[in-house]
Structures are given as C-alpha cells and as structure tokens.
Amino acid sequence: MMSYFSDIGNVCWFLEPQLSDAIKRLHHTVGNAVSEDRYVVVGTGSTQLCQAALYALASPGAGVAEADPISVVCAAPHYSSYQEVTDFLRSGLYKWAGDAYDFDKDGPYIEIVTSPNNPDGAIREAVVNRKEGKLIHDLAYYWPQYTPITRPADYDIMLFTFSKSTGHAGSRIGWALVKDKVVARKMIKFIEVSSIGVSKESQLRAAKILGVVIEGCQHSASENFFEYSQCLMAERWEKLRDVVKKSQIFSLPKYPQEWCNFTSKYVESHPAFAWLKCKEDTNCEGLLKAHKVLTRGGERFGVGKEYARISLLSQGEDFNQFLERLSGIKTTEQGIRTT
Amino acid sequence: MMSYFSDIGNVCWFLEPQLSDAIKRLHHTVGNAVSEDRYVVVGTGSTQLCQAALYALASPGAGVAEADPISVVCAAPHYSSYQEVTDFLRSGLYKWAGDAYDFDKDGPYIEIVTSPNNPDGAIREAVVNRKEGKLIHDLAYYWPQYTPITRPADYDIMLFTFSKSTGHAGSRIGWALVKDKVVARKMIKFIEVSSIGVSKESQLRAAKILGVVIEGCQHSASENFFEYSQCLMAERWEKLRDVVKKSQIFSLPKYPQEWCNFTSKYVESHPAFAWLKCKEDTNCEGLLKAHKVLTRGGERFGVGKEYARISLLSQGEDFNQFLERLSGIKTTEQGIRTT
C-alpha cells in the first residue's frame, strides 16, 4: 500500500484490482451499465474523471484542431459545476459553451449528458447529435434508489461515483467505464499528471463496502441496500409531493412509471434533488432562504430564478424540518418577489 | 466519514482536524518548518497542491494582468514534472518558462524553489529575486533522512508530502503551509473544483501514522523513524560513493557537512536520488539502461544527457543489485557514447 503503483499490468496502473472487480460485479448485479470489456479508470471522485474525460477528448492527437479550444456543452438545466470545472484554469484545450440546446457552432464539440439529470432528475439523451460530437455520460444517479433501471447503459465514457451510489462522498472515489483504449489511456494520463493516482486507502475501503452491498443484493429486501434506499426515497418523495400539492406556490417535475429490472416492479424516479419551481417571477432560492431553507437557485443551472434545487439526501430529522418549513410558506409572501 | 466536509469551521473545510494537528506537531518535533499561525491545506499529494498554488498565485484577483499567462520558472536541473503539470491543460493563467537562471522577461512570474532539490539534492534559494516574483517552496525532501535540518523553513507557501516524509506514496496525501489567508483560500478553491476535497480514509491513516512517528521521536534512536532512516541513507550513500569512486566514468555531487538540529550532529545530505554525471558526451541514461539500470536522463530535468537521476529508495535487495550493476560498467564501453 505504500507504493504509487497498484497493478502495473493494468492500463490504469493506480487502480486496485479489488476495486476494479467490485465495480464490475456491482454493475453486473444492478444491471445499470455494461462493464464487460470496458476499461475501468478510477478517479478522485467523478469530478476529477469529468476533467480527465475533457482532457482525453480535447488533447493533442484527439483529432481536434489545436488552435481553438473545443466547445463543451450540456443541456440546461445542467449541473452547476460543469462550467466551473471546464473554465477555471482557462484551458486552451476546452471551453464551456453553455446550453446544448442553443449550440450552433460548426465543428467538433463535447456534450456532457447527465442522466438522471442533476438538478431535475430527467432521463436524458444527447441533444446536439452531430457527427463531430463526442459524448461524456455522467451516470452518477443511475442507481435503483433514484430511478428505475430500465437497461444496462452502454456509452463510450460513463462516469459513476461512490458518493452517489452508496453515499460515501468523503472517500473521493469515482470511476469511469471507457470503451476505447486510447481515450482510457489519456484519462489515466490526466490523473497521473494531476494527482499521481488515487488514494489506496479509499480504493480498498470502497472495494470492501461495494462487496458488502453486492452481497446484500443476493438477500431479502431488508438487507438489500438499493431496495431499502428505493423505499426510503419513495417515502420522502411522497411526503414532499403532499406538501407541494397543498402549496399554491411550488410545483415539481413529474416522472413516468417504468419497469425497474433490478427491483422487478414499476416505479417512478425519486431523484436525490427536488427541482422546485415557483410561480413565475418569484426568486425561488430567495423565498426559501427567507424561510431558512438553503438551496441552489436556477440561474446556477443555466435556467431562470423561479427554480431551485434542494437536496433530499439529508438526515431524517433535517428532511422533516425541511418539509415543515416548506409547508409554512404561504402565497401571501410578497417580500422577495422578483428581487 | 461519509460527508464531503471534515471541519466546516476551518478555512480548509475538507481537512481532518486530526491530520492538521499531526502535521503541526510533526513540524514542531522535527523543526523543519514554521507551522504556527500558518494555514494548513491538504491535497491529493503535493502534486495537486503545486497546481493549487499556481492557480492561487495566477488566478483573477491575484494582481496579475489577465491578458497573458504568468511565467513559471525553476532553476535547472529541476523536477521533471513541473513543466508537464504547468502546461498539460494549456492554461491561460500560467505557462512554463523554463530555467530560472535564463529568465529575463519583465513583469510578474512564479518561481518554484525545490530544496533539497529534485534531482540533485542541492539546498536552494530563489534565483530570480525580483519584486514581482511569487515563490512556491517545494520542501518535499526537507526531512532528516535526506538532509541536515539547519533551521525551521519560513516561506509564504511551503509544500510537503506524506510520500517523501514517511514513504506512504499510495495514500496521496500532501500538505501546504501557507502564510496568507487569501492565497490559502484560493488553493482550497482549486482543490474544491478539481476534486471536491481529499480522501478522508487517507487523511485519517496519515494522521495515525504521523502520530506514531512523532511518538517515536521522543524515544531512543532505534525507535526514531528519522534517525533510523538517516543512518540507512548514510549507509547507502557510503556504498554508492565507494562504487562511483572506483569507476572512471561517473561522478556524484558533493554535499557539505552541516549541523542537524534534529539529530544534534554534523551530517551531510543523503538525497533520495543519486544525480549521476557521466564523462562528457556520454548518454548517461542510455549507458545505464544498457546495463539494466532504469533512470531518468538529464534532459528531462532541463540539463544535458550526461546526467541521470536514480532513485535510492528502492528495497534493500534492489539497491544492492543496482550497485552491482553499476560496478560492472567499465570505461571501455563505447557503444552508446554520444548517441
């Protein structure tokens, strides 16, 4: 465990074999992604892997003209960090180009497809769909507790993270499943240059925990982490929808019922975030903040301020307090409208 | 341990308090750096922290004109990765400008000062010394096993790493001691955007191991990690110098004897790397490779191919085999001269 190296026979030389095995077994068990014949690349969270993927798709030799940075787009509302992650070093390789729906520049581009989407939980496909496009699929939330597993995803670059699959954010473990060896090599190069690999302690603990989760999936529902979590999220969403229904200010997206291959039943999505919409012209984040509910406003996600994103993954007591505070917000509120 | 957060009251909100304490106690015990009233910033190895420091010193609001990337220099021979780390994303914030001795551009610049130096073990100070310069001190090797501890270092940004202090490279833990709060905040921002913090498993294990090392320093030499390691490195260097002395091809740098405040004796440096010089015009890396000794050639460090860097931190058996192979290289070798 003291060395930089984990497995010098593997393209991803800093990946612990136990973690690689656990990841492949987990996807096989859950049925949410094709992991056979894919390169597993481990990262310091999927945040680092997203940057590794941008680097891999935009770096010299990727077939991109070297003069201009390649455009990076994502359909709005999109995860608020993509823009910052893309632009914070003012890279000459890639550059944030905003909402994929508005993208009309000729030439190569990278589209990030987040499905289920952060912030609104929608199931998504690429929207630009041009020949010169390269795709990164961020599937952080494609797990049974959040959404029905309708098929094994099978894309060129798929990103997952320990923080959203089981909740272990502090371990900073993400992984990518990559089809193409050249792309995988470049992603690995990025992680080599930016941090010389990934914590072994975290990798080994993640392997152990994922092993326990996989083992639980063979047993009854009460021992099955994903079934348990699916029920928990369904309960929270039911309570939340009750409160929102009674309010005359807020609304929530609707999700279709779909067959979940993992739990063998029809379920609808129960996303990790509530994507709350206020009546027109209301500053949703401001309104909620005035009632001591901290959210992230729609403008951070490339849409209007009538939207706000709220985490539903808090501790039980915090969640109940959130519902209570939300129930207390009445239509007579005028103070912060359009401010 | 599941949360992203470690200590929300700390500027560095992802730093485990136990690790922060252990780091400060370690520097106090060893006497190699002033850590009181300094901000501790943890990173995924000091590689990530070096980038965080570049970002902090070059990013908007750092007083740098936004049009041009700031020049980053380091006196040659310099650590082979600085250039790659600086340039791999073609940042518009900073740009590698090579050997600090050759730097003659007006305006702001960043100088990385590595002391003891990688690859040649020299004790260094900044060389450009102009008002508009900002300094990053990479003190990865400023520990008693490598060099006498002559005084507590006291610079604006000092980088250290678990991998070189105790050898735990696989944990990917580095830390910076930072004087200025604004700079510390920007470094923390960099780590937030690039990896949303640092593995907690690694931080907690590092805290535990550093605690054991500190505890050992109170006891007899045999239990004192740094004294033990200083003896081990002295032994290796003695053997290496014997072999090199007998060769008619190689030479090594000489280091002065200095008083080590930590071990209370006169010692010379015993660097982690041997910086071998071959007779003029010899390709040192090639010559050694032909004798099954893998090194990194001088050109990677910004100097001539008559130099090569060899790690002296291998396992005992490997080290002895290296010495044996080195002894076998005779002056009659002509095959790869000047190739």
UniProtKB/TrEMBL annotation, chains A, B:
This is Alliinase C-terminal domain-containing protein. It comes from the Eukaryota. Keywords: Pyridoxal phosphate. Residues 2-328 form the Alliinase C-terminal domain. Belongs to the alliinase family. Homodimer. It holds the Pfam family Alliinase_C. The keyword Transcription does not apply. InterPro entries: Alliinase_C, Ethylene_sulfur-biosynth, PyrdxlP-dep_Trfase, PyrdxlP-dep_Trfase_major, PyrdxlP-dep_Trfase_small. PANTHER family: BIFUNCTIONAL ASPARTATE AMINOTRANSFERASE AND GLUTAMATE/ASPARTATE-PREPHENATE AMINOTRANSFERASE-RELATED, TRYPTOPHAN AMINOTRANSFERASE-RELATED PROTEIN 1. Transmembrane segments: none annotated.
